[in-house]
Amino acid sequence: MDNLQTSTAVVPLRATHTKTRYYILAMIFLVTALNYGDRATISMAATPMSQELGLNSVTMGYIFSAFGWAYVIGQIPGGWLLDKFGARRVYFWSIMLWSIFTVMLGFVDIWGSIPLIIASLFILRFLVGLSESPAFPGNSQIVAAWFPTKERGTAAAIFNSAQYFATVIFAPFMGWLVAQIHWQSVFWIMGGLGIVVAFIWLKVIYSPEKHPTVNTDELKFIKAGGALTNMGENQSKVVDAENKISFKKIKSLLASRMLLGIFIAQYCITCLTYFFLTWFPVYLVKERHMTILQAGFAAVAPALCGFIGGILGGLVSDRLIKMNRSLTFARKLPIILGLFLSTSIVICNYVESHTAIIFFMSLAFFGKGFGSLGWAVMSDVAPKEMIGLSGGLFNTFGNTAGIVIPIVIGYIINSTGSFNGALVFVGIHAVIAILCYLFMVGKIQRFELKTTP
Questions:
Q1: Cβ(147)–Cβ(21) under 8 Å?
Q2: Is residue 426 within 8 Å of 280, Cβ to Cβ?
Q3: Do residues 266 and 391 make contact, with C-beta atoms less than 8 angstroms apart?
Q4: What is the pTM of this model?
Q5: H helices within 256-373, ranges in order?
Q6: Is 443 left (phi over 0), alpha (psi -120 to 50) or beta?
Q7: 384 in Cβ contact with 327 (< 8 Å)
């Protein structure tokens, strides 16, 4: 291994190695975009669905939150499944199941009774969230396996930015479906698309050591750069036994000030994501008096800015590493600057025109995208033997926002009749995330589990 890290070995590898890792990244990007498209189906259908079924904002808040409850519950088991069985198999079943449950959401009206319809909406969204829970820890595991450290920030930023690109692609399309056909058609079409993509996944995704198109030079290149190439598929029985979920290991992760700061910050950052995924289209329709179709197209600009910000954040971070800045500086600088920009969401309370609203929302989501390097940070700091479980714990904290944001904002709207307090509530979370990275996280480095001899 030592001879792979010399400068004379690296130069020819750059000239001859294949680029399979970029096709892997493209597949992760596609699946993540679909993932977020399916998450947003309920928000695009929410206004006509709530009018047809007579649901108030509090009821819709709880229905929105169903995904978050399950997503949080499933993170640690999902991470353990990834460590035990590998991302390729676990992720396939994740895509397949969340797509089937999404299709089923389009048939909830067969119950006739409103209480049964509400219960089935909650249960099916819960099952969608449970099925999606291994997705982002799986992304982190695949990026850690396929990309060297100096490319990892960009790779993580690209797959993370798919959440915004999903809105660019799917929001106008879903808005058109709702306006021209019916709100149920959104679930049928998006779920059906996911079933197709699940089978494509099996044809594209393998670990570096098993992929049919990777050559020896690319494998050596990514290994020399710090990639962990087995992707959970070559675990020995001894390692498998050591990878059992234990509260002792979880406690050791939570005892790290660095990791705890990263986890709390991710919760705060994800609050902005869930506002966008749940209440943002409703905000545009009810507070800003747009039509459903207008709201679908209006959501494109903030999403596109979030996408651009996400890519730029990763590029800037990796560029700083190549300029020999420390890993800590290279990760923290984009995060702090981006989150500062994201506080501009509060300015929407003080402007009236649709153009100004979209501008400040776009600025906020550009900043949120620029600062969303949490998964790159996790690829840098997670213990080598517990990448899936660490990612699951990270996502557990982050997606607690999927429970808090829909419910709290529902109550704020119901009690005040306005979104003003909701936007302030979201903006405060960006400030807390900045404070976490400034004062809690400290030096960013690989966490070493203490093992008992």
A1: yes
A2: no
A3: no
A4: 0.68
A5: 257-274, 280-282, 292-298, 300-322, 327-342, 354-370
A6: beta
A7: no
Q: Please report, in angstroms and rounded to a whole number, the separation of the first and last CA atoms in the chain.
A: 27
| Angstrom distance (rounded) from CA 358 to CA 354 | 6
**449 residue type, one letter:** L
How far apart are alpha carbons 339 and 197 in whole angstroms? 33
Contact, 213 vs 24, CB < 8 A?
A: no
Q: Under a CB-based contact definition with an 8 Å cutoff, are residues 129 and 71 in contact?
A: yes
Would the CA dihedral through 228, 232, 233, 236 be positive or negative? Answer: positive
Spatial contact of 157 and 310, defined as CB atoms under 8 Å apart: yes
Both structure tokens of 212: 């049919």
Distance CA 34, CA 396 (A): 21
Report the alpha-carbon distance of residue 298 to residue 231 in Å, rounded.
39
CA dihedral 115, 121, 127, 131 (to 10 degrees): 180
Q: Compute the distance between CA of residue 257 and CA of residue 103 in angstroms, rounded to an integer.
A: 42
Each residue's pLDDT tens digit, 285-343: 888 888 877 777 787 888 889 889 988 998 899 899 889 899 999 999 999 999 999 99
Quick one: residue 353, left, alpha or beta (phi over 0 = left, psi -120 to 50 = alpha)? beta
Exposure of 8 by Cβ count < 10 A (0-12 exposed, 13-18 middle, 19+ buried)? exposed
Low-confidence stretches of the chain (pLDDT beneath 50): 1-15, 235-243, 452-453
Task: Give the contacts of 224 (CB within 8 A, at least 6 positions apart).
Answer: 1, 4, 5, 9, 10, 13, 148
By residue count, the chain amounts to 453
What whole-number distance in Å separates Cα of residue 189 and Cα of residue 167? 15
